């Protein structure tokens, strides 16, 4: 839950799109250190409960323009679970985190007027709907809450905190929609905060947060972070992260590749994040507080992105977390009335489209992570996919129209091509799930619907294209523009979405030879276009609809082309520097893509199948139920000579999840 760290800006402020996680490397100012944030999303939100050490107090320091200060990257360091920086005024800041709490250690320059600000209005490009703050100087404790209203969650949610100044509080004041009153211990309002003069010039401050109550924040602090040196807190965090990151080992990578790989694994584990307290209490979609017993409640699922790579990675490497995620999504449906599309805090944000929760849950179950209540989940998944009953959020558009026309007509449904293709993928996953849970009639129906993506192919232009209810295709088609029929993409990028049925996709495109030629042109045009900072016209790794495209070559019989273009993507869209990704990480989606590329295989989400290429490195090893799975590349070059699974030549392009979790060896001979 706690991701304590700096929120930054330029002298004039900054663009929200560059600050979705609070920190942007090109910035020159630190605004303060907040505790609650997301990772790699395309929309900013959270950034709550901000602390900022400063020299002296005056009323201009009630907001960011008054207290932010310059910093240099030469004066900061970071590692998993800890961060440090020396600000331009000489204040040294060290931060370390536990699951629900953070420790701050400040060192003020000699003879300076040491002050710690707590700003409860601050958040990332949203607003506060108000809050309260209380200072108990005798106990050295500051507590309160603010009601965050962000771009994902307009109605917002309350977030509580408790902070203990271990060396004590010498004096204090609060502001609340005024210029501040010295010695006022309680305040409420929107423009809300406190200034604290610590007893020590080197104060240690322990902060815990909760989304349930002030009592929850207090319990989190008591459970996780007692008084002690910050080095010990940082060391504990480092040990936890080493255990998680050590689940995968690699050999034969360059130092740069090792840094990219480790960073990718670290990023992939940032979300979804815990929203429950240390004792299991959490606020549900019904607004009530519940207890998670034997599992941990998680939220902030960027599902339209993460169903493709991140959740398959969790299922493979962190199945215990995949179980938590499945139970969390089911709990949201039980308490809120539907499976969400992009849940944040206490509700679904209804951002993006499709039915990605269906794919995640099907993927989890059919791959053997089954220690959760499918008996309750399946009827809900089936009914929501059929549009049955009242669906308060994340309802698929007009199921009757889809089944009548065999596609979403553009005169009836916006983003018609995107909706048809996304829901077809979800229906394909539900068909696999229905078969697994013994519902053959449902499996047959969803399997039929999973082919509806074919019905929007316009042979006159050679792309999937908006089609109206009279059966005609819309005029004025341009495959290079972001038209209303798609979502965050163009016709080129939506040409490959039916890849989960590769034979059918090849047939629609005119046969395998024609399909391979068009896919080759797609990548060759992308190579000529180069890697841009803005939306690409052809292959666009910075967004999701086409990130699987390179693996289609192998499904169509050309392993060498998959090997070539996967290496091209890895070399040109990832780097060991601050701009090391092709866009925002979309909650670990791009990072998980790299990890699968390094392993030499890639998931077809919602199924048990993986497409084979060659590992980026000489060897990748990771723990599975059956012991260890090793993916090994023998040789180097452009041509894949042979693929062997446990010593037996693999003739096709895929293998199944059960082969992975049983342990064994994938060997790819390259020359």
Structural write-up:
By secondary structure, the chain is α+β, with helices and mostly antiparallel strands. It has a domain at 5-227: Beta-galactosidase, Chain A, domain 5, CATH 2.70.98. Helix content is 29%, strand content 24%. It contains 18 helices and 34 strands. A 9-stranded antiparallel sheet has the order 5-6-7-8-17-12-11-10-15. Strands 18-29-30-34-31-32 form a 6-stranded mixed sheet. A 5-stranded antiparallel sheet has the order 3-9-16-13-14, with no helix packed on it. α6 (310-317) crosses α7 (319-336), α7 (319-336) crosses α8 (356-366) and α11 (416-436) packs antiparallel against α12. It is globular and about 75 Å long.
Derived from helix and strand composition plus strand pairing, the structural class reads alpha+beta
How would you state the average pLDDT, rounded?
97
Low-confidence stretches: none
- Which percent band covers the strand fraction? 15-25%
Quickly give the CATH architecture of the domain at 5-227. Distorted Sandwich
How are the elements arranged and paired?
Blueprint: E1 5-9, E2 29-34, E3 50-55, H1 64-67, E4 69-70, E5 76-79, E6 82-86, E7 92-97, E8 101-107, E9 114-119, E10 127-136, E11 141-149, E12 157-165, E13 169-176, E14 181-182, E15 186-189, E16 192-198, E17 204-210, H2 214-224, H3 230-245, E18 248-251, H4 255-268, E19 273-274, E20 281-283, E21 289-291, E22 298-299, H5 303-306, H6 310-317, H7 319-336, E23 343-344, E24 347-348, H8 356-366, H9 374-386, H10 399-405, H11 416-436, H12 440-449, E25 457-458, E26 463-464, H13 502-508, H14 512-529, H15 552-555, H16 559-573, H17 589-599, E27 601-603, E28 609-612, E29 619-624, E30 627-634, E31 640-645, E32 648-649, E33 654-656, H18 657-661, E34 664-670
Parallel strand pairs: 30-34
Antiparallel strand pairs: 1-2, 2-4, 3-9, 5-6, 6-7, 7-8, 8-17, 9-16, 10-11, 10-15, 11-12, 12-17, 13-14, 13-16, 18-29, 19-22, 20-21, 23-24, 25-26, 27-28, 28-33, 29-30, 31-32, 31-34
